[in-house]
């Protein structure tokens, strides 16, 4: 009787742990994106404190559960195959090792800093000091103990993200429902949007979420989910224009190509495939990619017509957002994608019916019709490839011809990112050996740039930079080569986790797609407590799912 009680107690602990982690996911996916305090004035510190409080609460609860676990070391979980489950929960993954090494590198960078208090708090930058690293590390450890993502998480996150998209769309069209611009100077308003503040932070969120919902729609097991994700992607396409940041195009484009390749590889093409997912299922990943991409492009096209037609928000558009002027090409691409989705869906169903009929010995379909439907997807695929190539060609030609910033690399490239990168590479080359290895201290860019290029920086850029606007360069300078290597190791090992896991659990694909979007945009964006916590949350969820697989 005592052993049974021990099993039940241990089983209850694991159930409570899983529930606590999912409660934290609700905290991050539902509340965190919407949190504001005094509009955009204190958005960075507000998001930081909200994230910090959530992690501390999670740590306290998990510590109590750990105490309960350790006081009952005998027995097992009470779950079927519990001994095996426990050993898997205790498995150490490569990503876990790199996470710990990354934190150790952050500690050495903290020790190497001249102003350790500033390095700890990150007050001279975007609040991503050593304290922030400890918070994301703690969140990673707590979530990665073995959490399995529930299917309802993605639809809920989609609804919340859709609200932030809608808010940015309305603001772009000069409809400020919550009067967030009231305390912002008129000339500064184009730099702030939605509940994320700076447009680059919002673009970072788009890079995280649009690929995530694209992948979720591709592997949706119910029609209503695919409809929801498509609607959210439609709003996301509109929000890309509202963001007015080239970061969004870069961070969304790469995972879209990755998902296209995944869709082609996993498309439904055999009788066995059809039987696995169900003959009436909507879960054909390639068809899902078609539908999702059509939703994004259609939303982008509608927003282009609204912007140019009303004139609202048009004057502030820069860089790749000027694609709104090419409405004819956008319209053609939208039509091709919508018709292609319909034709491929019809052809896929006909093909599957033919294969099923053949498998069952029912030869009611003529061979010519069968051959025609089996070739249908190839025609549509190459049509889409042609449209994508045409779009890329027009974008590059137009950008070069009009000397868009993104196609002219000099000090002014990317709103003076070229200037900052060039100077930071010079600074790194001149650092002592110890600082090259361990860095100059967390969030020390402001100090370094001010000490060496203060007058020149103000004269050239008109401001003082506190970030490299490239996360990898930021880690190289502030945490040294050790910090950069451990961070890249964490990213690469997490990608390996995702690739291995997605073969048996499609719920991992959205996390992998969102992570890729963030990793790509990080080449031209900044680390901050507004969207960066989502990256580490995605990494932790993939590690937890991998550990449970």
Structure report:
With 549 residues, this protein is mainly alpha-helical. Helix content is 71%, strand content 1%. It has 20 helices and 2 strands. It has helices spanning 2-31, 43-70, 82-89, 94-112, 116-121, 130-143, 153-172, 199-218, 223-243, 246-265, 271-277, 285-310, 327-359, 367-401, 413-429, 433-438, 445-461, 471-502, 508-521, 532-548; strands spanning 192-193, 197-198. A hairpin with a 3-residue loop joins β1 and β2. α10 packs antiparallel against α12 and α10 runs antiparallel to α19 (508-521). The longest helix has 35 residues, at 367-401. The two termini are 31 Å apart. 46% of the residues are buried.
Short descriptors:
549 residues, mainly alpha, 20 helices
Compact description:
The chain has 20 helices and two strands. 71% of the residues lie in helices and 1% in strands.
What would you report as the Rg, rounded to the nearest angstrom? 25 Å
What's the overall average pLDDT, rounded? 86
Total of DSSP H or I helical runs spanning 4+ residues? 20
Helix/strand structural class: mainly alpha
Largest sheet, strands/sense/barrel: 2 strands, antiparallel
Strand order of the largest sheet: 1-2
- How far the N terminus sits from the C terminus, by CA atoms, comes to 31 Å
Q: How do the SSEs run, as a string of H and E? A: HHHHHHHEEHHHHHHHHHHHHH
What percent of residues adopt helix (DSSP H or I)? Answer: over 70%
Total strand count, please? 2
What percentage of amino acids are in beta strands?
under 5%
Shape: globular
Uncertain parts: 74-87, 274-281, 363-368
């Amino acid at each position: 009787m005592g052993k049974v009680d021990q099993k039940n107690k241990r089983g209850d602990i694991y159930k409570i742990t899983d529930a606590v982690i999912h409660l934290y996911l609700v905290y991050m996916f539902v509340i965190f994106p919407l949190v504001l305090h005094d509009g955009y004035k204190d958005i960075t510190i507000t998001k930081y404190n909200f994230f910090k409080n959530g992690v501390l609460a999670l740590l306290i609860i998990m510590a109590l559960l750990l105490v309960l676990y350790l006081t009952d070391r005998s027995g097992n979980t009470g779950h079927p195959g519990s001994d095996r489950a426990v050993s898997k929960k205790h498995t150490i993954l490569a990503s876990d090792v790199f996470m710990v090494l990354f934190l150790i590198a952050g500690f050495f960078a903290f020790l190497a800093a001249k102003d350790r208090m500033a390095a700890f708090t990150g007050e001279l930058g975007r609040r991503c000091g050593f304290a922030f690293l400890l918070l994301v590390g703690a969140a990673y450890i707590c979530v990665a103990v073995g959490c399995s993502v529930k299917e309802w998480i993605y639809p809920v996150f989609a609804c919340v993200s859709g609200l932030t998209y809608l808010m940015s769309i309305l603001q772009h069209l000069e409809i400020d429902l919550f009067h967030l611009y009231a305390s912002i100077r008129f000339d500064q308003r184009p730099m702030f949007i939605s509940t994320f503040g700076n447009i680059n932070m919002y673009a970072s969120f788009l890079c995280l979420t649009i690929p995530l919902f694209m992948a979720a729609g591709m592997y949706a097991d119910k029609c209503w989910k695919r409809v929801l994700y498509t609607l959210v992607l439609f709003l996301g396409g509109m929000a890309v224009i509202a963001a007015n940041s080239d970061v969004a195009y870069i961070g969304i484009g790469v995972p879209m190509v990755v998902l296209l390749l995944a869709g082609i590889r996993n498309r439904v093409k055999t009788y066995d495939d059809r039987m696995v997912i169900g003959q009436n299922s909507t879960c054909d990943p390639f068809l899902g990619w078609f539908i999702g991409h059509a939703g994004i492009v259609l939303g982008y096209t509608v927003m282009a017509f609204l912007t140019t037609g009303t004139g609202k928000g048009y004057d502030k558009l820069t860089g790749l957002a000027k694609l709104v002027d090419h409405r004819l090409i956008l319209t053609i691409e939208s039509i091709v994608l919508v018709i292609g989705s319909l034709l491929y869906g019809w052809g896929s169903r006909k093909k599957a019916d033919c294969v099923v009929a053949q498998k069952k010995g029912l030869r009611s379909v003529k061979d010519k019709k069968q051959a025609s439907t089996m070739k249908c997807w190839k025609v549509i695929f190459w049509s889409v490839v042609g449209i994508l190539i045409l779009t890329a060609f027009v974008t590059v030609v137009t950008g070069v011809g009009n000397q868009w910033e993104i196609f002219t690399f000099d000090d002014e490239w990317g709103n003076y990112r070229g200037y900052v990168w060039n100077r930071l590479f010079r600074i790194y080359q001149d650092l002592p050996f110890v600082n090259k290895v361990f860095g100059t201290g967390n969030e020390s860019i402001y100090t370094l740039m001010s000490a060496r290029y203060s007058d020149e920086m103000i004269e050239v850029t008109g401001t003082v930079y506190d970030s490299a606007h490239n996360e990898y360069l930021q880690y190289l300078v502030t945490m040294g080569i050790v910090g950069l290597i451990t961070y890249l190791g964490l990213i690469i090992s997490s990608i390996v986790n995702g690739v291995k896991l997605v073969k048996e659990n499609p719920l991992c694909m959205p996390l992998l797609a969102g992570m890729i979007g963030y990793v790509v945009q990080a080449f031209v964006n900044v680390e901050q407590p507004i969207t960066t916590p989502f990256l580490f949350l995605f990494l932790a969820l993939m590690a937890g799912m991998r550990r449970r697989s």
